[in-house]
Specification:
Length: about 270
């Protein structure tokens, strides 16, 4: 067994697969400083299916990039599978990314001139094992997402939903600890969205841990838990049933408040007469 480097979490009993503490990310563009994450805490257990929601610019993609080891936080701690990722060097981080993370993007991010099979094989370029083994694994992954009959098609010969399936096959190829999807259905119609969600649910039922960024309530409804971000912090973190109830309550309160305001205005107007 390979010994992995990187310091261990102080509490080995903690069950979280992902734990971030006081995470901050500051972008500097010219003279401007942008606080994309402002001290974010989050823990995700193995085999959870979590939706991340929040308005545009609230820090969702920044958080996903941190969780996916695509970028580093400015400060704070990130433990993935008990290893302190925030302290790792670039090559160690690349290795963690390859072994532990599967990433799915809104825009699919496939190579246009490569076939579905070649796109899926990509993460195995640096993997051990021969050419034949790689091909078999890629074919099995395409089969698993229902594209066993489209392996030689290039992206422009596939529908949007099929392209996203190729991207999902590529993401699950290395059996990642966590599958991160940043608005994976943002470019898809509602029927295709439902099909992709069914695939995520199937992967989840087979044990996959999944984090999905979405604007769509229908997508979040497939998850067990909803984390809402605002201004780079966690605004709420609730089981789906409570999140839905909370949102209804909020809209009922807003309706009552505006009805009261109207009633007061009318009463005020009446008194003035
Ligand atoms: N690479 C970057 N460089 C500079 N600013 C960025 C970068 N990425 C995101 N931002 C800024 O950080 C904030 C959060 O962005 P983002 O995480 O993309 O939000 P979301 O995904 O919730 O829409 C925004 O104000 C955005 O403009
Ligand atoms: Mg985003």
């Amino acid at each position: 067994m390979r010994v992995k480097r990187g310091s261990r979490m102080p509490d080995p009993g903690a069950a979280a697969l992902i734990e971030v503490r006081a995470l901050t990310k500051i972008y500097r563009v010219g003279v401007e400083t942008i606080h994309a994450l402002r001290g974010l805490d989050l823990a995700i257990r193995r085999n959870e299916m979590v939706a991340i929601m929040g308005s545009s610019g609230s820090g969702k993609s920044t958080l996903m990039n941190m969780l996916g080891c695509l970028d580093r936080p400015t400060s704070g701690a990130y433990f993935l599978n008990g290893r302190d990722v925030s302290r790792m060097g670039a090559s160690e981080l690349a290795q963690v990314r390859n072994e532990e993370i599967g990433f799915v993007f809104q825009s699919f991010e496939l190579l246009p001139r490569q076939s579905a099979l070649e796109n899926v094989e990509l993460p195995l370029v640096y993997a051990k094992g021969g050419w034949r083994g790689r091909r078999q694994r890629a074919l099995a992954a395409l089969d698993r997402v229902g594209l066993g009959n489209r392996v030689d098609h290039r992206p422009n010969q596939l529908s949007g939903g099929q392209r996203q399936r190729v991207a999902i096959a590529r993401a699950i190829l290395n059996k990642p600890s966590i599958l991160l999807a940043d608005e994976p259905t943002g470019n898809l119609d509602s029927q295709t969205t439902a099909e992709i969600l069914a695939l995520f649910r199937q992967l989840h039922a087979e044990g996959q841990t999944i984090v999905i960024v979405t604007h769509e309530d229908e997508v979040a409804a497939h998850c067990q838990r909803v984390v809402r971000l605002r201004d780079g912090r966690v605004l709420s973190d609730l089981p789906i049933a409570q999140d839905v109830a909370g949102r209804h309550l909020e809209s009922v309160r807003a309706t009552v408040a505006s009805a009261s305001a109207v009633a007061e205005a009318i009463a005020g107007g009446g008194a003035a007469c």
